[in-house]
Specification:
single chain, alpha/beta, six-stranded mixed β-sheet, 9 helices, about 20% strand, globular
Length: about 300
């Protein structure tokens, strides 16, 4: 069993950036504690709190994020067939709102390997771009990429919860988005996260301390969009939750539970033997078929349109 140590710093997030509520740092009942779910830091745990007014969730302690991102497992990811299924769904979602090979698209925060950009280019989309502030200058971390705008479509997939100031980020993206363009924001849904259950992978993965600094409700994401003058268009099911057998959030988290591992297991070779010999295989098989309809709805995708 891993001995976990509570991380505490002198600088803390005590004020809600959505409604300006201020939490009392001396009120222990206001805080919950979750472990880090990345292998390199599983011995650390962190406090967070939910704003009683707008229900936004905030990670309490401000840490050196460069230290934690240095061993972030997504850098190991490759464009395997499950990712292709997820990205096919994402492409179809965008197509519903006019996306075609004639349009330009920016995947902001695409990761060091830009998997969705890779997928689109393989599908014949030539005007697709990816940028990630933690990427390398000779890869997807080149700021010159942003000069390719204005973009017809912008993706913000599991990014906004990682940034300290969402208004500054969205303001920057608004300047990169063409008039009449669409922006799709995918992020955990604070409304459906029970902070009393750090033992449930579906919740622990969505909380994802210390990487997720602020976790929003649908209402707070819509508020942030309206501050930019964007029109709310639709709320979509996240692309990683599909009707394909075994490719849904519930079965993914059951797989993680069987391997008794951190989120790193999602970016490593599939361990079929461990699943098939597990005493929980029956649960895995059940969720593989029915998991799509038994979702915790711990994630959300919201699409906006910029006025012309």
């Amino acid at each position: 069993m891993v001995q976990q140590q509570l991380v505490s710093t002198t600088k803390q997030r005590l004020e809600c950036l959505i409604c300006n509520y201020r939490v009392d740092p001396n009120d222990e009942s206001a805080f919950s504690t979750f472990p880090c779910n990345v292998r390199a830091f599983m011995d650390e745990k962190f406090k967070l709190w939910r704003c009683p007014d707008c229900k936004t969730i905030h990670c309490l302690d401000v840490v050196d994020l460069d230290h934690y991102y240095a061993k972030y497992p997504i850098a190991q990811a490759t464009l395997t067939w499950p990712f292709r299924v997820f990205y096919r769904k994402l492409r179809k979602q965008l197509t519903k709102y006019g996306f075609s090979k004639t349009h330009s698209i920016l995947d902001y925060g695409c990761g060091a390997n830009g998997l969705f950009v890779q997928y689109l280019r393989q599908q014949g989309f030539t005007n697709c771009h990816g940028y990630d502030p933690y990427g390398t200058k000779d890869g997807f971390g080149d700021p010159a990429t942003l000069q390719q705008g204005a973009f017809d479509y912008i993706l913000l997939q599991d990014v906004i919860e990682h940034v300290e100031d969402p208004n500054a980020l969205l303001d920057r993206l608004n300047n990169l988005l063409a008039p009449g363009g669409y922006i799709l924001i995918s992020t955990p849904n604070a409304s459906n996260l029970n902070l009393n259950r750090p033992d449930i992978n579906d919740i622990c993965n969505a909380v994802h301390v210390p990487y997720h600094l602020h976790i929003y409700t649908p209402e707070s994401i819509e508020l942030l969009g309206r501050r930019q003058g964007w029109e709310f268009i639709d709320s979509l099911r996240p692309n990683h939750d599909t009707l394909w057998p075994s490719l849904n959030a519930r079965v993914s988290n059951e797989y993680q539970r069987i391997l008794e591992g951190p989120v790193d297991v999602f970016f490593e070779p599939i361990n079929s033997r461990k699943v098939l010999t597990s005493s929980r295989f029956i649960f895995f098989a059940f969720y593989a078929i029915f998991g799509y309809w038994l979702n915790f709805y711990s994630g959300m995708s919201i699409i906006f349109r910029k006025s012309i």
